[in-house]
Amino acid sequence: MTDPKPKGKKTDVFLWWALGIALAAFGLRLSLINFQIHSHPDEPIVAALMERSVNQDILTANWAGFDQPWSRPTYQFSPYTLVQSATARLVYWLISMPTSPDGYILLARLCSCVWGALAVLLVFFLGRACFSPPAALWGEAILATCFLQVQDSIYARVDSFLCLLVLVSLVLAIRAAKRPGCYSWLVATSLSVGVTVAANYNAIPV
């Protein structure tokens, strides 16, 4: 008679599938970013702010100081612009790139792919918390192949970042609702909602 195998932690097959779908979503979006530069008016603005952050060591979302028609004082807290600028500084510190406005646009598009893929993964965690793992995978797969979300995830714009923040807020809200006595989740949800609205006021109805 052989000894029974020790009981270990069961492999979360659904989680592995969710990671695979998110990775596939990232690959899909990444394969689509190499299109015409400056195809959207927001992209040169994001690239200019990122380049200024690297070259002048200025981390701000203010549009003032550029010789461009869109340049004007904007006293705002823009999480998207600040994150993109900080990412550009980190990437430049690591590999001394990018070195041109077009390169900064491509970097911002790459970041959009990352935000979009992370949003896809968060749908799984949200669906699993609200429904079931199979339903969560279906929801994740739907967002992974959603035309609008794919399109928003290949431009150097705020949209995919906003989608990620909305889903972060929803996941935290579910956690807070399931733990009514734990105020830390409520505080985290409130902070997340605040950052989301600061990123784009269009998130207010959500």
Describe, in plain words, how this protein is organized in 3D.
There is one protein chain. By secondary structure, the chain is mostly helical. The protein is built from 8 helices and no strands. The protein has helices at 13-30, 42-56, 79-95, 101-130, 133-144, 147-152, 159-178, 183-199. It starts with 12 loop residues before the first helix and ends in a 7-residue tail after the last helix. The mean pLDDT is 92.
**Mean pLDDT, all residues:** 92
Largest sheet: none
The percent range for helix content is 55-70%
Shape: globular
Quote the beta fraction: under 5%
Low-confidence stretches: none
Order of helices and strands: HHHHHHHH
Number of helices: 8
What does the radius of gyration come to?
A: 20 Å
CA distance, first residue to last residue: 60 Å
The number of strands is 0
Secondary-structure blueprint of this entry?
Blueprint: H1 13-30, H2 42-56, H3 79-95, H4 101-130, H5 133-144, H6 147-152, H7 159-178, H8 183-199
Question: How would you describe this structure in keywords?
Answer:
globular, mainly alpha, about 0% strand, about 210 residues
Outline of the structure:
With 206 residues, the protein is an all-alpha fold.
